[in-house]
Hints:
The chain has 227 residues and is mainly β. Helices cover 13% and strands 33% of the residues. A ten-stranded mixed sheet has the order 1-2-6-8-10-12-14-16-18-20. Strands 3-7 form a two-stranded parallel ribbon. Strand 4 (61-62) and strand 5 form a beta hairpin.
Amino acid sequence: MRKVSFRVICVTVSCLIITLLCGCNLFVTDKDKFYLNKNLDYDLTWINLEKAGTDIIIPIKVGDKEIREIYLADPYFTWIDSLDVSRVKELRSFHLELFTDEKKSKLRKLDFSKNKELRDIFISKTNALKEVSFSNNCKSIHLSGTSVKKVNLRSLKRLKYFTFYDGPLEELDISKNPHLKEISVKNANIKVLDVSKNPKLENITVDEGTQIIGPTNARIEYNKRTE
């Protein structure tokens, strides 16, 4: 009888342990956390923050599909505390848009320095974001509604398009970007913009009162600041 009772107890305990484990994150896979576009199975479009947490590390693959694009556009992602994309070696395009001016966003830093294939970056309404490190091969960058004060573009030799709207940007050096074609900086704090090293510039948009230094054939447009 004792042997039978012992066996019953062991089976019962084992069942309880399995039940508890099934209810925790040990059995949660990347497929449960990250969702790819049904039509573009390399495009990450959703993250389940309840399962992934708020400190996000995006994997190289979801299942057997390698991530090449990240497109996150929803106020839901204001709850993200940190976002690590360093493992996504084939990342070509990154888009993060929160669609809200409310001070909910907690994301303070983004680092793309290890994403050597990254070409396009679009970041909008991330009001807590203060620091962004770029991939050297970026060709297009858009930042709007951030708290970034300084942007370092010196290593981005291939950069063609740079846009910055609605933020406290104070420092911008484009002297090492010879292929820059368009630059637009509006509702920012740039006082002087030196374009003497940008022979391919076609369009320049800056706030009224911003001093442009250097000869240029680009079309210049002055933005009337909005408060």
